[in-house]
Amino acid sequence: MSLPPRSAATVPPTTSRLSLPAAVDRRRIVWSYAITVGFYHLAALLAVLPLFFSWTGIALAVGGFYVFGTLGINLCYHRFLTHRGLVCPKWLEHAFAVLGVCSMQDTPARWVAVHRRHHEHSDRQDDPHSPLVNFLWGHVGWMLVENRDLARLGIYDRYAKDVLRDPFYRRMERTPLYPILLLGSWAVFFLGGFAASLLCGTSAAEAALFGASVLIWGVFVRTVVVWHITWSVNSAAHLWGYRNYETGEQSRNNWLVALISNGEGWHNNHHADARSARHGHRRWEIDVVYASIRMLELVGLASNVCRPNQRLTAAISGEKRKAPR
Ligand SMILES: [Zn+2]
Ligand SMILES: [Zn+2]
User: Fold this and answer.
1) In sequence order, what are the residues at sequence separation of 6 or more whose Cβ sits closer than 8 angstroms to the Cβ of residue 151?
2) How remote is the CA of residue 207 from the centroid of ligand 1, in Å?
3) Strand partners, 29
4) 203 alpha carbon to ligand 2 midpoint, in Å?
5) Which ligand has an atom closest to residue 78 CA?
């Protein structure tokens, strides 16, 4: 499969402030996204109430950062579906995609299409979410107002045809499968907590409270934290950090973003070699997502794993700061 051509790659990098994409209409709020983002943040705030505190909930949130964020979004949506850096058995690919769906970052085809457009137009006016407009735009604002460039049919036709050849991903677009999976995951967390509590001999009221705690921490807190981690790759990792490569845009390797995102913050490396399943290029650029892919490969559940281009990595070995163009 060929990735979209980087037609703008020869244009010099933009270091000044950018205007909004021409197709953005700031007066037209995308209410479905705005309400969802607001609702999840408010629901996550309930976690500060002692009533909803539970160690189980916290453990589920922390474990969920890896399961839903690292495996669902970083490994599946990003390195697998968007960049085709590895191959997995279909059953495992779809299982990982469901974890991505439960992270509430839109359907796989939509995520892939928007991200491929970002790579094609990085830090230029047509980039859907460049933080060179301003930090908040790159972080979250871009998805809250209408951008005609991101109209579903047009963007799918250009950027996600390969994803939509799979009937499973087509069903996500054409049937209520996506909200069913999302709301189903809420039910699993709440009812799982409720049932476990009842089995321990608590009253129905106490069990409902425990189920609510599991839901708030395991779904809402986890989703909001994973959102901000993903969004920080789009915002902070195009503003602050060092560069191993001259990539023609403003991508950065940001150690803090890399730490919280399990490796996605080595974003300048990623822009230099988008197909590679490994984003950490130097020995100390720890990449937990890639380590997870290696584990899958070792047990026979991943193949065709793309390694970094050796010409690039050879150029930065010996701690050279710049790679040849
Ligand atoms: Zn980027
Ligand atoms: Zn990417």
Assistant:
1) none
2) 44
3) 145
4) 48
5) 2
- Residue 238 falls inside a structural domain: yes
CA of 118 to the centre of ligand 1 (A): 7
Note whether residue 317 is domain-resident.
no
Give me ligand 1 centre to Cα 324, in Å.
20
Residues near 93 by Cβ (< 8 Å), separated by ≥ 6?
76, 80
Report CA(266)–ligand 1 centroid distance (Å): 10
Q: 257: CA distance to ligand 2 center in Å? A: 15
Domain extent at residue 94:
27-242
Tell me, in angstroms, the distance from the centre of ligand 2 to residue 191's CA.
Answer: 36
Position 157 in a domain: yes
Whole-prediction pTM: 0.91
Q: How far is CA 259 from CA 79, 105, 274, 295, in A?
A: 17, 21, 19, 19
Ligand nearest to the CA of 251: 1
CA distances for 96 relative to 15, 87, 291, angstroms: 37, 12, 16
pLDDT in tens, the chain (325 residues): 333 333 333 344 445 689 999 999 999 999 999 999 999 999 999 999 999 999 999 999 999 999 999 999 999 999 999 999 999 999 999 999 999 999 999 999 999 999 999 999 999 999 999 999 999 999 999 999 999 999 877 899 999 999 999 999 999 999 999 999 999 999 999 999 999 999 999 999 999 999 999 999 999 999 999 999 999 999 999 999 999 999 999 999 999 999 999 999 999 999 999 999 999 999 999 999 999 999 999 999 999 999 999 988 888 875 444 444 3
Residue 303 lies in a domain: no
- Number of folded domains that form the chain: 1
